[in-house]
Design goal:
The complex is a heterotrimer of chains A (117), B (341) and C (480).
Chain A: H1 9-24, H2 47-60, H3 65-73, H4 80-88, H5 94-116
Helix pairs in contact in A: 1-2, 1-5, 2-3, 2-5, 3-5
Chain B: H1 5-8, H2 11-23, E1 48-51, H3 54-74, H4 79-95, H5 100-109, H6 115-129, E2 134-135, H7 146-151, H8 154-170, E3 175-178, H9 181-194, E4 201-204, H10 205-216, E5 221-230, H11 234-239, H12 244-251, E6 254-259, H13 278-281, H14 283-298, E7 304-307, H15 310-322, E8 328-331, H16 332-339
Parallel strand pairs in B: 1-2, 1-3, 3-4, 5-6, 5-7, 7-8
Helix pairs in contact in B: 3-5, 3-6, 6-16, 10-12, 14-15
Chain C: H1 3-18, E1 23-24, H2 27-33, E2 50-52, H3 57-70, E3 74-77, E4 95-98, E5 105-108, E6 113-117, H4 122-131, E7 134-135, H5 148-154, H6 162-165, E8 172-178, E9 184-186, H7 201-204, E10 213-220, E11 222-223, E12 226-234, H8 237-249, E13 257-261, H9 263-272, E14 281-289, H10 292-308, E15 313-317, H11 320-331, E16 346-355, H12 361-371, H13 375-379, E17 381-387, E18 392-400, H14 405-425, H15 440-462
Parallel strand pairs in C: 2-4, 3-4
Antiparallel strand pairs in C: 1-2, 5-6, 6-10, 7-11, 8-9, 8-10, 12-14, 12-15, 13-14, 13-17, 16-18, 17-18
The chains are: A mainly alpha (117), B alpha/beta (341), C alpha+beta (480).
Chain lengths: 117, 341, 480
């Protein structure tokens, strides 16, 4: 049984590992984009940009939490991208990954707040 | 670099989290959530437990609140400020015993017929007509917690899920029939991951109904012919894989003609209407998604849009109204209940 | 000026040239546009400075003039899905030019052509043409995201058989192009008859964006023909190769599609679609005719040919759903990386796309399976699939996700080397994603230094500041 309950470093590391493992399956084919209902002409408005941002932030430490948060929470979590990726490509679970990233981002913020206080 | 919960979670989601944790429902009101069921004689214990969910029970309040939030946004008051104002005022008034949430909601809902809780009544009516034995937890029905998960508060979600499971077990519950797709997918797909030993059997309303109709060879019939189109809710089609059952139900109704949107806009590819959690983070984007999906559905030429999820129904009602189209938006259960008379 | 100030200046300048809403300096935007169709790995210093998504040819022209003036590299993207390295910026401080804003469509049915902006999506174009009774004479797996401009710049075709209807640039009657100095020119003709002799279209179509930026394409309208479908399952891949060799030997008309998918590659997509276990290695063909009788007759002939080459099962497919499923299994090849629940994930570790002369089709299969000596590739799972009817095969090697990244990278390099070996061995060239970036090493060996020097001299003359896709012709970042 899997549980990411608890905010200790190990839990967060495991969540990060899962997220990055999913993104490794993404080959940037961009075929999910035309299925994404929030995509309006710029990649960051769609599933593909969100995944690239998650990778950039968690793997390479690039960018700011607030901007990442904007991308993550403008997702409708409709899973249309995930359906597309499963049927046409590698099944990188983009929708689930975006949700997991939300959870990890919040945990990190909560941990930072605890440290700060 | 700010790294605080406040800076990474949009205020709408934080607000909903507060409501779920403090009041046990997404809109944070203290109204009797089971008022809709008071004349239905539903026992607390039965073979199946009917899980009504927050959606339809509180939609009338949610409608008022989202309208208020969007109006404030359009008037230039940022989402942050408008909700903070709300919360701030609530705290002050709360101290002198006035529950602002409930009052605002009552004001918003005043003078309006509650179409949403009627759907719950129809759902129970349908299930009973099909001879399925259901119970209902009334005021003790907890929030499934899924708004917490989507808001990013995993720990809160897990704690809530474990608490709920213990409650279910203590009441001897083994089988649950969920009506709201998001609640049902939360119970069926997420709880087993986070709750040790989770062993409840979770069904969705449409699965049970489709099965019983087939088993009993029932042929529902409408008095007046209807031309409808069906909008697959994301949670129902893609999270629960329930795509054929609603269509079986609709196609089985005598007097109902079903017109579908394009193949890449229906079933597993159903275009998201934007309802649900997106409102909490991005109300304007949410509105655009609603309009686009409403346009797709209206192209079918149907006079009724049928769906099976409170978020979709509320969103599509609003979008259709904005487009000034003379098209009704109804839940599957309303039509089925009528046809089973 | 500090870097930061210079960047802000650049963004402000581009915003006033192209319109504020057509320029983005957001970090995550720049990162996602700066990726190609291979892997999500980043090179921080190569992240573009800005993403420009102009909506008119005039905008593109202004941008190019500006870039020339400031000596800034421009990397030109349709959707950026090419998978041999060409979309990625090779140099720092670049402008990422996305052509997806150029989406004009003008039908000229009376003159048998359609003019489309370079950024028009291939799938949308295909659907539009079909709705008018025409067809798009190309079909790549990435059509859901790729653009027509990219297809013409690379002269790709995907699954279709070249000698059936031709490749995409055979149907390009003319182009609108922005030159490296920003000048706009129009090429070709509006007549069915192509220009004899010098046709400037040829300087840009298939030239991978290094001589000019294609902004509009004039495509001949081709009527949709009648189709018939054939499927065959064979005990061995080489039987499929022999079947197509026989087809041509008998001077039968080339099919529109002649595809193969090895048994191992069938398993995951079949499972995903509820098709059970594959009966053998699969061959799929679609034949076309002016009448249904013609198509049906060709299909029967093809079944006969399959049967003559050992097929376990060969028949005409009449159920549209069955055809859709088989086709989807072949088309969505990356499904093979989806492992069943509990099994370790697979990651792509090397892809090959090589051509051979017809008489060596079966030899290629043997070479891929056992004939080469890249030991790392023999360690991985091999899937062979592709366009057997046009003698262009793919191999995909997949490694368990637990392999260290460096091992996987050396597998990727081995795949590229093997691809080169195959093309060199039999005097061919890859037919789908171009010859720049990862393939420059092949280009130089295959055609020699004299030709390569000529190419570089032309590039230097046309684009003296080397602002269009710099580094791609040089093969920068890849093995020499």
């Amino acid at each position: 049984m899997k549980s990411n309950h608890g905010s200790d470093d190990d839990t967060m590391k495991e969540m990060e590992r899962e997220i990055l493992a999913n993104i490794q399956l993404c080959i940037n084919c961009r075929m999910c984009l035309n299925m994404c209902p929030t995509y309006e002409g710029w990649f960051t408005q769609g599933s593909f940009g969100r995944l690239a941002a998650i990778n950039a932030y968690f793997k390479y430490g690039l960018g700011e939490e607030e901007r990442l948060s904007e991308l993550l929470y403008s997702c409708a979590t409709c899973r249309r991208c995930q359906e597309r990726c499963k049927m046409l490509c590698t099944n990188a679970s983009p929708s689930e990954t975006i949700l997991k990233a939300r959870n990890l981002l919040v945990k990190k913020a909560q941990a930072a707040e605890r440290k700060g206080s | 670099m700010k790294n605080t919960v406040k800076s990474v979670v949009p205020v709408g989601h934080r607000y909903i989290r507060g409501n779920v944790l403090e009041k046990g429902n997404i809109v944070g009101v203290e109204e009797d959530k089971a008022a809709w069921a008071k004349d239905l004689d539903l026992p607390r214990q039965a073979e199946y437990t009917f899980f009504a969910g927050c959606g339809y029970q509180f939609m009338k309040y949610a409608e008022g609140m989202t309208r208020a939030a969007r109006t404030m946004q359009k008037a230039g008051i940022g989402m942050d400020k408008s909700i903070s104002m709300n919360i701030g005022m609530s705290k002050v008034l709360g101290k002198v015993g006035i529950d602002l949430g409930t009052i605002t909601a009552k004001v918003a809902a005043a003078g309006k017929e509650d179409v949403y809780t009627r759907i719950l009544v129809s759902a129970v009516s349908v299930i009973r007509k099909l001879g399925v034995d259901i119970g209902y937890l009334h005021q003790d029905e907890p929030c499934c917690g899924s708004p917490l998960y989507y808001a990013g508060f995993l720990d809160d979600y897990v704690e809530n899920a474990q608490k709920n499971y213990e409650l279910f077990k203590s009441l001897g519950i083994q089988k649950v029939i969920g009506l709201i797709p998001a609640c049902t997918s939360s119970l069926r797909n997420l709880y087993p991951h986070y709750v040790e030993g989770f062993d409840l059997k979770v069904y969705h309303f449409a699965e049970v109904v489709a099965q019983e109709l087939k088993k009993k060879g029932i042929k529902p019939k409408l008095k007046e012919k209807l031309v409808v189109t069906y909008h697959d809710p994301c949670q129902l089609s893609r999270y629960l894989d329930i795509i054929d059952e609603p269509r079986e139900i609709l196609n089985n109704i005598d007097g109902l003609e079903l017109r579908e949107p394009e193949p890449e806009q229906r079933g597993q590819w159903s275009t998201c209407c934007g309802g649900g959690g997106l409102e909490a983070g991005s109300p304007e984007l949410c509105e655009r998604l609603g309009r686009r999906r409403a346009e797709e559905l209206l192209e079918t030429g149907a006079n009724v849009i049928v769906s099976h999820c409170p978020a979709c129904i509320m969103q599509l009602k609003n979008s259709v109204k904005k487009l000034k189209a003379d098209v009704a938006v109804m839940d599957l259960v309303e039509i089925l209940d009528e046809a089973l008379e | 000026m500090t870097d930061d100030k210079a960047n802000k200046r650049l963004v402000a300048d581009l915003r006033s040239l192209l319109g504020r809403e057509n320029v983005s300096s957001d970090l995550y935007e720049r990162i996602s546009y700066g990726l190609d169709g291979v892997a999500p790995d980043l090179e921080e210093d190569k992240i573009p400075l800005v993403v420009a998504q102009p909506t008119s040819t005039q905008h593109v022209s202004k941008l190019v003039k500006y870039a020339n003036d400031k000596k800034l590299p421009i990397y030109i993207h349709g959707a950026g899905t090419a998978f041999k390295g060409s979309p990625r910026p090779k140099r720092p401080h670049s402008i990422l030019l996305s052509m997806q804003g150029l989406t004009s469509i003008d039908m000229h049915e009376e003159d048998l052509y359609i003019e489309v902006g370079a950024g028009v999506n291939q799938y949308e174009l295909e659907k539009l043409l079909l709705s008018h009774g025409y067809m798009l004479p190309m079909n790549v797996g990435s059509k859901y995201s790729a653009t027509i401009g990219g297809a013409v710049a690379i002269n790709t075709i995907g699954h279709m058989v070249d000698i059936c209807l031709g490749k995409i640039i055979d149907h390009v009657m003319g182009l609108e192009v922005v030159l490296p100095n920003g000048e706009i020119i129009e090429t070709g003709t509006r007549s069915i008859r192509r220009p004899a002799g010098i046709d400037y279209t040829r300087f840009f179509a298939g030239m991978e964006g290094v001589f000019g930026i294609i902004t509009k394409v004039r495509l001949r309208l081709i009527p949709m023909l009648k189709k018939a479908y054939v499927v065959g399952f064979f005990p061995d891949l080489t039987d499929i190769a022999h079947a197509f060799m026989r087809l041509y030997k008998e001077k039968l008309p080339p099919p529109l599609y002649g595809e193969l998918l090895d048994r191992q590659a069938c398993t995951a997509p079949f499972r995903l679609r509820g098709l059970g276990e594959p009966k053998g290695d699969m061959a799929l063909a679609i034949v076309i005719g002016h009448t249904q009788e013609d198509a049906d007759q060709q299909a029967d002939e093809l079944v006969r040919v399959f049967k003559a080459e050992n097929s376990i099962e060969a028949r005409v497919v009449t159920s549209p759903r069955e055809q859709e499923d088989y086709w989807a299994a072949r088309d969505n090849i990356l499904n093979v990386l989806q492992t069943p629940e509990g099994e370790e994930n697979l990651l792509p570790m090397g892809a090959l796309e090589s051509s051979v002369p017809l008489s060596h089709l079966a030899d290629l299969i043997d070479f891929l399976r056992v004939g080469h000596n890249h030991s790392i590739l023999h360690e991985a799972k091999l899937f062979i699939y592709g366009h057997v009817g046009t003698c262009d095969l793919h191999a995909l090697w997949a490694a368990p996700a637990s392999w260290p990244a460096e091992k996987r990278m050396s597998g990727v390099r081995a795949g590229t080397r093997l691809e080169k070996e195959v093309n060199l061995k039999w005097g061919c060239a890859s037919g789908e994603v171009g010859q720049t970036a990862m393939r420059v090493s092949f280009l130089r060996e295959r055609y020699g230094e004299a030709a390569y020097s000529m190419l570089m001299a032309i590039k230097e003359t046309i684009d003296p500041n080397n602002i269009l896709n710099p580094g791609n012709l040089e093969g920068e970042g890849y093995e020499k």
